[in-house]
Every structure is written in C-alpha cells, then in structure tokens.
Amino acid sequence: MSALPSAVGRTLTQTGEDGSQSAGQSVAEEAFLPTCEEVPCAPNILRPEGEIKLEARSLNMYYGSFQALRNVSMAIPERRITALIGPSGCGKSSFLRCFNRMNDMIDGFRLEGDVLLEGNDIYRRDLDLAYLRKRVGMVFQAPNPFPMSIYDNIAYGPRLHGRPDRSELDQIVEQSLRQAALWDEVKDKLRQSALGLSGGQQQRLCIARVLAVQPEVLLMDEPASALDPTATFHIEELMLQLMEHYTIVIVTHNMYQASRVSQYTGFFLMGELVEFGHTEQIFETPRDKRTDDYIRGRFG
Amino acid sequence: MRSTKPRRWGERLIEGAIKSTGIATIVFVLLIFVFLLKDSLPLFGHAKQTASLLGTRWLPTSEPEQFGLIPLLLGSLYVTLGAMVISVPLGVACAIFIAELAPQWLRELLKPLVELLAAVPSVVFGALGVLLLGPWFAKTLHLPVGQFAALGSLLLAFMAIPTIVSVSEDALHAVPRALRAGSLALGATHWQSITRVVLPTARSGLIAAGLLGLGRAIGETMTVLMVTGNAAVIPQGLKGFILPVRTMTATIAAEMGETAHNSTHYFALFFIGLLLFLITLVVNVVAEVVVHRMGREAK
Amino acid sequence: MTRPHLVHPRHVQNMMYIVLSLMAAVVVLPVLGLLAYMMIKGLAGLNPDLFLKGSQALLPAMVGTLYLVLLTAAIAAPIGIAAAVYLSEYAHRGILVRLIRLAIINLAGVPSVVHGLFGLALFVMMLKFGRCLLSGAATMALLVLPLIISASEEALRQVPQRLRDGSLALGATRWQTIRRVVLPNALPGIMTGLILSISRAAGETAPILFTAAFLSLTNPYPESLFDEILALPYQLFVMTSEMPSVPAETKWATAFVLVVLVLGLNIGAILWRTHLRRAKRW
Fold first, then answer.
1. Residue A158 contacts by C-beta under 8 Å, 6 or more apart in sequence?
2. Domains, chain B, ordered by start
3. Band of the pLDDT at A27, cuts 50, 70, 90?
4. Contact A130 C1 (CB under 8 A)
5. Does the pLDDT of residue B283 top 70, yes or no?
6. How far apart are CA B31 and CA C211, in angstroms?
7. Is C16 inside any structural domain?
8. What CATH number is attached to the domain comprising C254?
9. Which of B186, B190, B199, B296 to mutate to test the interface with A (most CBs of A within 10 A)?
10. Which residues of chain B does C96 touch, with a Cβ-Cβ cutoff of 8 Å?
11. Residue C38 belongs to some domain of the structure
12. How far apart are CA A259 and CA A287, in angstroms?
C-alpha cells in the first residue's frame, strides 16, 4: 500500500520543520542479539539490533513525591509492535506518555534521564512540542472523537499543521479512513457527527485521525480496553497492517493481546522494567521470576 | 407497624409543608405574572392610550397623555446591546484565562474576585458613574453631557461580566479532558486546542452565558437610572450612544413614585413591567434550554 | 497542496495569550481601581457627624437596612431552605421538579424593579400593608429566595450519600435522617449561602423604591413593621442623583459605608466557605 509514502521510513537528523524524507527502507534483518550493550542495565533487558526508533535511557519519573518510574531503559525498534504489559499502576502508561510528552501537563511531574527519538533528545528546552506530537501520534484508552463530523475529525490534524486545500483534504480523509479499515462503514456519512458511531468505530476513527497527520510512531494506550471482543479483533488486525509503516508501542493489560500482536514485550512492575525481549521469549521462557509469576497470573 | 403511625402523621405534615414550599416557587412566579397582568390590562380599556403605545413619544403627564414605548424599548436596546458588546468578549476571555491559562494561585485569587464583583450593589456602580466616570468622560471626550447611553452600557457590562465569566467557566470545565488530550496528542498547540476543540464543544454553555448576562443587563435598574440621563428620545445611529436615553427599567423606577394609583400612567408602568417580565422570562428559559442541551451533549 | 500557516501556530498562541491576559486584567483591574478610589475618597469623608447629624445621617439608614435585611432573612430563609430540602432530598425527576426549577430560574431572572412593582401591587395595595418595612422585606424576600434555594441545595448535596444511607440503615425515617444527619452537616454551608444571598438585600434599591423606602421621616427609626424605613442604598441613590447640593465627600463616604457593609458580608462568607471546604470533615 503506497497510500502514505511520506510516513514511511523517514530519516531525520533534526527535529526541524523540514524533515527530509527518503523512500521506505528495507526492514532490518531479524537478527537481534539478547545482549545489553551500552545500557547499564539488568541482563534481562534486550537491546534489539537494527534501527532503533525510540529510546529511553535511565528514566526516573516522579509525580510530586511519588516515583512512577525507576531507572527504566528501553530501546524500541522501528516498524515493529512493542507491547508494554504489567499490573495496573506499574508505570507502563506513564512510560508510554514520555514519548510524546503527554505527562508534561500533570502537576508535579518531573523526569530524569533521556528520551530519544531517532537519537534526538525530545525533552530539549527548544523542542517544538507540536511537531514532536505530529511525529509521535497517540491513541487513547477510551475513544475520544471530537464533537464534530467524521470528516472534520480526520481533517482536524492536517488543518492544524498547515492550510491544506479541499481536494487534498478529501484525499487525506479517505486514505486515513481506509487505512483504519473504516472507510466502507462511514463513506456515506462523513458529514454526520462522529459521536453517532459505535465504540469500536469511534476508536478506529481516532486511529484514522492520528494517521491523517502522518506520524512515524503510534503510541496506543490500552486502545481496546473499552471495546467488545469483535471491535478488539478489528483493532488488532489493523495494528498488524499498520506495522508495515509505523513503529507501534502498545500498552495493554491483556496478555493475550500482547502475545497476539507484538514482536517485543516489556514487563513493568512497580515502576521498574523487569524484563524486555522477544514476545515469544517473554511469554514462553521468561527469565525473571516476577515475569513468570505475572504471566502465569499470580499478580492482579 | 401500627405503633409508629402517630409519628408518621407528624412527618407527613412536615414533608407536606416542605413540598409545598417547593410548589410555592411556581406560585410566586405565577403571582408576579398575574399581578403585572391585572394592573396593566386596564390600559387597554382606552382606545386612545392603546393606540399611543406604538408611538414615538413618552409623555405621561402631558395633555393628552402619550405612552409611546418605542423610545423606551430602543433605549433599553441601546444600553443592553452596548453592554453585551463589551461584556461578552471580555467575560468569555476572562473565563478562558481562568480555566485554561491562569496558574493555580491566580485562579484561586480571580474566582472569588469575580464573585465579589457580582456583589457590588448597583447603586454603587451608579454613584461611580455619576460622581466620577460621567464627568470624566464628558471632559475627556468633549461630550455634551456626562450622562449617556454608553456609560450605562459600560457599567452594566461590568455587572453582567461576573455572570458570563462563571457560566462560561463552568462550560469550559465541562469539556472532557480526553478531548484536550486528543487534540494535543495530534500536535495541536494549546491555543489551537482551545479554539478548535474546547470552545466549539463548550458552545452551548457559552451561548447560555451570554443570554444570562443579557437577562441581567436588560433588568438592571438603578445604575441605568442614575447614569443614562433618562431622556425619552429615540436614539439616532451610533451617536445615540453618547447621548442620554431612557430605558424601560429606569422609567418604572423614576415615575412610579409620583404616579396616582390606578391612573392610566400607573397601568402603563405596569405594562412596561409586564414586558420586562416576559422578555427576561424568554431569555432565561432559552438559556436554560441551551444549558440543558449542553448537559445532555456532555454525556 | 498544503500551504504553511501564515503565522506559526506557536506565535499565534503567544500573541493570543497576551491578549487574553490583558482582557482578564481589564475585567478585574479597572473595577478594583474604581473601588479603591471610592475607598480613599470615602475614607477621607468619614466623620462622626456623618452618621448622626443632619438630614443625610447614615445611622438611621444603616438601622433601616439592618431591619430590612433581618426581616428579609426571617421570611426567605425558612421557605428557601425548605424548598432546597425538597429539591435535594425528596424530589425525583419529573414534571413537577422541572417546573419548580424553571420557576426558580425565572424568579432569579425577574428584574428587581419588576419585583418592586409586584410588591407594590400585592403587599402595599392589595393586602394594604402600605409602604412599610414589612412590604419591603416581603418583596426583597422574593428576590433573594432563588439565591437561598440554590445555595442551600448545593450545601445539602455536599453531604455524602453514605451518611444518609447509614442513618436510614439504622431504621431512621427520611425526615429523621434529614433533621439529625443531613441538615446539621449542611448547616455551615447553608449559613454561608444565606449570608451571600442576604447581602444582596442589603445593596438592592429598586425593590424597596415603591414598597418601603422614604427619605424624610419624622421618626428615622421604625417602631413597627408598618413604618416606612430609610435604607443605605436608597439614601445613596437619592443623594447622588437628586441632591446636587450635598457635598461630594458625603456621597463618597455613603458609598464607602455601603460597599464596606455589603462586601464585608461577602468576604466574610467567602472566607468562611473556603475554610469549610478546606476542613471538610467527611
């Protein structure tokens, strides 16, 4: 699918406005080694080889006096699905929100360590936050369509970042909805309020809305937790398709979902990244006893 | 259960009394309406006075009496319109500032301050207008008089602003956080999120805020009576704003004290009261319907 | 083609933030400035003679306002609080409740001068109370009634449901629960709301214009409910708009006393309310 070529394989040296674009690169060979180079961390943290899209180095995060993350280091590979699992309150959502800086708004938020997008620090003072979030899109736990038409929901992002003309906008809306596997269901009612859609449709609309700004990364914060099994299935199918073009990080407390869709999985417990590796390895031969306990259902 | 019956009787009585106070509020509104109607209907007994209602001259003590309401309606319109032009943008801006921009400490300072603004009695605003602002404007802008429509508008605006601010702020707060987050996550700036998501979502609440402010401004009496000069003339164009006008409320307040009970003039003043009652009723009911719809949309 | 923004969104944002801050300042600062000016002017004009001597003495007006406010509260508070209890504790959704709420909204929206007309027609004329303290207070009571109802209802709703449930589970009847649990817990909130509402009555003029107020009384202090009264806001109104011969200092001083009285009540109630919210006992 060549629908969104510019979203694919951007190589950016700077987070400037004019990110140069190149044609889609070939996906790196599947030859990651379970070693732990350069990051001083536990041996149970895998560093995937090949293109690293996002990286956290020695993150400590605080909400006031509460420490939400403890010395978390993780490298997230490009154009793969990485799942973050763990019990509620383990810090996985907080960690996810570091990558598009959605934690900044919370009172008392404080972060130590580095978060890198293609090697560039995204917590620099002079960073253009809007541009970061354009590159790193996010889908929230509960669908949050704006109270406007389906069309305007999708067009919202492109209109933020420039003044697209009508025909281009029409095209973006159609492409995005097709990518989100929603086009056929809504093409006849683009002018109707998005609030009239079902929960699953609303969530796919929110995904389409993110795709319309042509991000490189998709952060998904338990995107299916508010949906019924059929809608969940749709979303999971969609993620596997999107993986071709996007780096996806998904937070889920549904371990089956993690094992179904992801190639890499990280297990969080009480603000700590306990283990990170290939999904099969995490679920079949966890190295840490705590991971094993969680996988086998010994934690809430 | 029989043994408890005597006490239940007492409770029934109390509960009945409590319920009747609730119903009393409806009765009060109806009573106001009935009394206004009762004392304004006799006006329509005389064909000549009835005909003069649509005239352009309000001359209640001349011979023959004339009760042309047009200058009073226009006077109210001018003063109220002016007040809205000033208060709606300022009030909504202030609400956005409080809800979206102000740091916590400033918000906690501003909210009670605005509430306090609402508590300043209207005669005090009037006195400020008469003693200070009127003469000052007249001198600085070389106006013919220190009592004019726009001065009433200005002071009314500051009386309507607290209502507008607090209702708008409620509306802004009712916008789900998830929508802001969704917008920011798409790379919108805070300001883009405010103008493109927050304000459109809060639209009905903001309209209601304006309407409630309007209701407050139309009904305001003492300030207008004191600062707008009370000349029952038909205001002409924009110039009307810097000349004296007379509003409906001011007319009642100024003339009722010197009117013989059950005279035609008395009935005419009650008729103005009835009009005011109906206008504010419509404005408030519409505002209520809009707010109600907002409540439903939020779900 | 997507064209770039004419002005970068971030610059637009910075610009608009400045504009908004200025507008918020315009809402608050000029009025504060004017009030401060009035305070300074009024403070300068204050002296003991002002309160006691001459036809414009403030003390009788203050006493009149005090009587008016107390009587208004005595009439409006029981009705208002009972109506709030009905709405918060008894009423369910239904046509009656919607009608009552609509009535309250309209009652709150009726222009104060129209309240005055109503008071004139009902209390002064029809019930033949005449122009007096009672007529004025009854009229004023109707004006503050919706304020008292909303404030009390809010205070009642702040009482957590589990307190009611706990009482009901012990076998208390609904009224017992209200009287022994709900009302005592809501009382401070109701009182602050009452003070805020009543301060309105202290500052209003239009409703008493034709129902109670009179300027040149033979006896400045009312002796019965059926005497005419002086009132502070009324006196300020007459002084500033109809008596050019009265020196400006006297007018400023009168305004000063009125503002201090009304805002004092308000500030007191707001501080008390803030204190209550901080010290939430449940």
1. A164, A168, A169, A172, A212, A213, C2
2. 2-45 (no CATH), 48-298 (1.10.3720.10)
3. very low
4. no
5. yes
6. 17
7. no
8. 1.10.3720.10
9. B186
10. 22-23
11. no
12. 17
Q: Do C1 and A160 touch (CB under 8 A)?
A: no
Q: Report CB contact under 8 Å: C9, A162.
A: no
Architecture of domain A41-295: 3-Layer(aba) Sandwich (3.40)
User: B127 CA to chain A: closest CA distance, Å?
Assistant: 45
Residue ranges making up the domain that contains C140:
56-278
Q: Which residues of B touch C30 (CB under 8 A)?
A: 158
* Least CB–CB distance from B185: residue in A131, A137, A148: A137
User: What's the residue count for chain B?
Assistant: 299
State the chains in contact with C (3 or more Cβ–Cβ pairs under 8 Å).
A, B
Q: Give the pLDDT confidence of C83-122 residue by residue, as tens digits.
A: 999 999 988 778 899 899 999 999 999 999 999 999 999 9
Residue pointed to by tokens 């097709």: A178
Number of domains in chain C: 1
DSSP-derived 3-state class of residue C224: coil
Helices then strands, counting H and E runs in chain C, come out as 12, 0
Question: In this structure, are residues C119 and B36 in contact, taking their beta carbons and an 8 Å threshold?
Answer: no
* pTM listed for this prediction: 0.83
In a domain, C28, yes or no: no
pLDDT tens digits along B64-111: 777 888 889 999 999 999 999 999 999 999 999 999 999 989 998 998
Residue with tokens 């801050």: C21
Shortest CA gap B55–chain C (Å): 23
Q: How far is A207 from chain B (nearest CA, A)?
A: 11
Nearest C-alpha in B relative to A162: B188
Nearest to B191 among C16, C108, C114 (CB): C16
CA C11 to chain centroid: 44
Of A128, A160, A162, the CB nearest to C3: A162
First to last CA, chain B: 43
- The Cα A190–Cα A148 span in angstroms is 10
ipTM of the complex in this document: 0.89
Q: What is the mean pLDDT of residues B133-148?
A: 88
Chain A nearest CA to B182, separation (Å):
7
Angle, in degrees to the nearest 10, between helices B5-40 and C58-85: 120
- For B187, the 3-state DSSP assignment is coil
